[in-house]
Design a protein that fits this description.
TIM Barrel, globular, eight-stranded parallel β-barrel, alpha/beta, binds iron/sulfur cluster
Length: 376
């Protein structure tokens, strides 16, 4: 039975620890939260040692045919757009490799004309010599299309459900293929069948009541751990950040609640990777590392060409699918980013801070990271 079928039935017999997880999510006093944090810290040390893996996102394209109310790339936003060609992607990738990164996440909006599986595969083949670890965060694909991308050299895929609450989902995704909630929910299973070795899931916090989303996300994780066990599972808990379009979160999640949720997931799934992006402020990122975070992005740009200005001469303004040339002022500008970054420290500053916290920043590939852990 697919997870989407279990989800539709609303009962999760495979999620044995659901009562415990619900109790971990209940409001906590300060001493109770402290006890959770200690348990999460101890489990992280036991399962991951003192390593934190660094990666960088590389945006291929900010073209998108979907209207998602919360996203800067939404088709309805009149923003400066760009799709990098594979040579420009290589230029960006080389810049990140020179900074020390060996793990990269290729990100793109959903555009069936520009961001095809063949295009993504070409980009991967270009950057494969620089990166032993390549993951993608693009629109959900058919298993066959995912296979083309695995064959090109990607080993990881990230598909956030955004919100697991179907009503909220349909009120936030106003048009485009992304409106299909179930197609998206089934994407990790298709990716698994296609051979991805690392699968990332998550919810975008702020779109719906967080405890409900967290419970469904945990059920999804429990299902994948049981049925997609040959792949390594990661979970990410991004919070909404300011973006073009000016959407403000209806269900904001506080720092304290975010800490509690990280601890709860670490306690329930001690073996799962927890990923933290530069959406969060430096002080909070530093605080979350000892509590279970195992992968952090660093030095991130969320605009295509953001690292090297690649492709800037082809910038154009697109709103509702209508392409307009940029004004002279805009021609000298950058493509619009997906959201505002909160942690603007350089990758080296972040690596230094990780060391100060008593952890080893790992720039290399996943196996090497795990080998370091098992010998720690
Ligand atoms: S969230 Fe993804 S699909 Fe939606 S507008 Fe942004 S890039 Fe497009």
């Amino acid at each position: 039975m697919a997870f989407s079928d279990e989800f539709a039935e609303g009962s999760f017999p495979f999620f044995r620890e659901q009562a415990r997880f619900r109790s971990l999510l209940e409001p906590k006093t300060a001493p109770e939260l402290e006890a959770l944090a200690q348990e999460a810290h101890d489990l992280t040390a036991q399962f991951f040692g003192k390593t934190v893996r660094l990666f960088a996102p590389l945006y291929l394209s900010n073209e998108c045919v979907n209207v998602c109310r919360y996203c800067g790339f939404s088709r309805s936003n009149p923003i400066l757009r760009l799709t990098l060609n594979p040579e420009e992607v290589e230029r960006e990738a080389r810049c990140l490799a020179e900074q020390g990164f060996r793990s990269i996440l290729l990100v793109a909006g959903e555009h069936p004309k520009w961001v095809t599986p063949g295009y993504v595969a070409s980009c991967i083949r270009k950057i494969r010599p620089y990166f032993p670890s390549i993951a993608i965060e693009i629109a959900p694909l058919e298993a066959e299309e995912y296979r083309e991308i695995v064959d090109a050299g990607a080993e990881g895929v990230v598909v956030y459900q955004e919100t697991y609450l179907p009503e909220a989902y349909s009120s936030l995704h106003l048009s485009g293929p992304k409106r299909d909630f179930v197609w998206r929910l089934q994407a990790p299973e298709r990716a698994y069948r296609a051979g991805f070795r690392r699968i990332g899931i998550g919810a975008l916090l702020g779109l719906a009541p967080w405890r409900q989303d967290a419970f469904a996300l945990a059920a999804h994780a429990a299902w994948l751990l049981k049925h997609a066990w040959r792949s390594y599972l990661t979970i990410s808990l991004p919070r909404l950040r300011p973006a073009a379009g000016g959407f403000s979160p209806e269900y904001p999640v506080s720092d304290r609640e975010l800490v509690q949720l990280h601890c709860a997931l670490r306690i329930l799934f001690p073996q799962v990777g927890l990923v933290l992006s530069t959406r969060e402020a430096p002080s909070l990122r530093d605080r979350l590392i000892p509590l279970g975070v195992t992968m952090v992005s660093a030095g991130s740009r969320t605009d295509p060409g953001g690292y090297t200005s690649a492709g800037r001469d082809r910038l154009h303004r697109t709103a509702r699918g209508r392409v307009e040339p940029p004004t002279p002022v805009e021609s000298a500008a950058e493509a619009t980013g997906q959201f505002a970054i909160s942690d603007e420290r350089s990758p080296w500053a972040i690596a230094d801070r990780i060391r100060e916290l008593g952890y080893e920043p790992v720039w290399k590939d996943w196996e090497e990271c795990l080998a370091n852990v098992s010998s720690a």
